[in-house]
Amino acid sequence: MELSTVLAERTEIGAYADFAGGAPAPLLDELGIQVLTVGSVQALAVRADSSRFLNKAGGFGGDTPVTLDLVAAVCDFFRSSGVSAGSIMIAPSELPSSWPEIAAKLNLTEGARYVKLGCAVDDVLSASPADSSLRVGPVDVSQATEWATTMINTYGMAEAMSPPWRPFAAWQDDQVVATGSLFVNGSCADMFGGATLPSFRHLGAQSSLLLARARAAQSADCSHLTAETGAESPGSHNTSLHNMQCIGFRPLYARTTWLWRAPEN
To answer: Between 20 and 30 A from 220 (CA), which of 69, 201, 210, 212?
Structure first.
């Protein structure tokens, strides 16, 4: 069975919402974390995230189609949460013919483009990634602080992992030099939060972490994997995209991020 667009989109936003929204209550208050759920659509707002990377909405499609009222509710959520900007992620196949009018009415602008990738778990398990000198495996509680520190270098924050999560790392001797997590959403699992310290790139960490997480997905009875990375523009090269394709992922579609910005006073 093929991985559906709707399931891939819901798994992605579910990972972000659970990653931040599952934090302990005191941290939710301290960082200003809020989550909105409308049908299958989820939106995440993190007031303390100066990068604004975590302010996202997704999961549109299927029994929760894109409408003006729904997208307006997401924009109102971002506004009431006190964030200055947010990203709205909608697969191209789920955009209605009225989308240009909706985007214009809500002052949404085009942002970065991402490639959504997916594959069967077995596709990755049958791949043969390049050998790596790094040790790769799951992270236990005693290593959580070091794992989080490495994540913070890339994403600015990291929370405790709840049951849907499987955190992994790559080590050079005793140092955590790369991280990656697996978010389990029923039959589909999302490759989330891959981060490698700059001085340890090109050592096979990403491919090894992808394979380790595919094995964990198989153990969790998942049949499909999904992942996202930046789309290549003319003349650019995204190493992460090519690494994922080499290990069995295939591009499903390119998706434009639609940006909401708070009105200037």
So the answer is: 201
Distance CA 66, CA 62 (A): 9
In this prediction, residue 50 carries a pLDDT of 87
CATH code: domain of residue 208:
3.40.630.30
**3-state SS assignment for residue 130:** coil
Query: Residue 55 and residue 43: Cα distance in Å, rounded?
Result: 7
Secondary structure class of 148 (helix, strand, coil): helix
CB count, 10 Å around CB of 219?
Answer: 11
Same domain, 92 and 164: no
In the chain (265 residues long), the average pLDDT of successive 10-residue segments reads 92 94 88 96 95 95 97 98 97 98 98 96 85 80 65 48 80 89 96 88 90 95 97 92 94 97 83
Q: What is the pLDDT of residue 131?
A: 67
Counting the structural domains of the chain, the total is 2
Q: What is the extent of the structural domain holding 87?
A: 5-113+255-261
Look at residue 156 in the predicted model and tell me its pLDDT: 44
Strand partners, 43: 36, 57
Question: What are the helix (H) ranges across the chain?
Answer: 5-21, 25-31, 68-81, 99-105, 121-125, 144-155, 205-219, 239-246
Smallest CA-to-CA distance from 246 within 117, 91, 113 is with: 117
Statement to judge: residues 144 and 88 lie in one domain = no
Question: Both 33 and 106 in a single domain?
Answer: yes
Give the predicted TM-score (pTM) of the model. 0.88
124 and 240: one domain?
Answer: yes
Strand partners, 203: none
Angle of CA points 145, 150, 155, to nearest 5°: 115
Q: Is residue 168 domain-shared with residue 51, that is, in the same domain?
A: no
